[in-house]
Amino acid sequence: MIVSPIILIGALLLISLAQLPTLGSGTRTRETRAPNTITGFVYGPSGRPVADVYVELLTDSGSNVSRTKTHSSGNYSFRGLSDGVFTVRVLGFIVGYADAEQRVSLQSFSMIPGRGSVTEQVDFHLKAGRASGGPLGDPGVVFAQDVPAKARKLYEAGVEDLANKKDAEGFEKLRAAIDAFPTYYLALDRLGTEYVVRGHYQAAHVLLRVSLHVNPRSFSSRFGLGIAQFKLGDMDEAIGTLRTATETYGESANAYMWLGIALHKKGNLAEAKDALLRANRLSNSKSADVHWNLAQVYKDQGLFVEAADALERVLKIKPDHESAAEIRKAIQTLRSKANGK
Fold it and tell me: Which of 134, 150, 215, 314 has the highest CB neighbour count under 10 A?
């Protein structure tokens, strides 16, 4: 069913922004955070700062720690980090450039335990990227929008708060930015995808539907909408949306993984396996989540050896997995079934 943008925007406004989930509020536990910081600037091929491009922080094993967007000055930052080795990745495809990443080692030093800190500046000079194709066009096409100054300032302040772990303040400002300009793509996309990550799927569904009517070429909004549809039980819609997301941008391991999960849920084992194998290649076989889901598909296909092998890779990537004991038992059971016992 085709729903007009006016109806969707009206639906968004009927859901009072004040009633959307207020993330970061309520009772909080006190935690001790490491003081390390990674910061830097992202520049385009001409040397000019690149605004509103996603920057991800990954652990050495490839797990996602955090994601932010660059400010109008091209600056980004990740704060409160522990010692360790990280990868900073810039998703340049969103603004028409090639992706880029750099490894960073954080090691604080101090004569007083727990008081040391280190700040590493990691700058990026992006190169022109290739078009990924797809029915929605190149996801690298820049989406230009004439945004009122008030709404833009609220959005930028909200993103800054999120980067500094001030979730309640950040989400309040993003909601205010949308209130000030209901078709503000960047604010709709950011708030909607953040809601997906935090499990507020109904609110995310509304926001991301509006976002895609404003900018149909948005990969992140389409990917987030697909996850929200899956979590809300709209399996056919989720599969269609996630499939389109992978066609829009074919280099996202996470998008292929979620497509595989949705296809598996629907009982389409062959296509689920194909999607998950593509996710595995894109993640360089370093994603425990991909191997876990592959194991479930292999098991349902009766491929017990392959299922056991996939679970062993899960433990190799995450030896401290919270379900390690259960996974070892499952591996033994699968090996026994493979041997006809």
Answer: 314
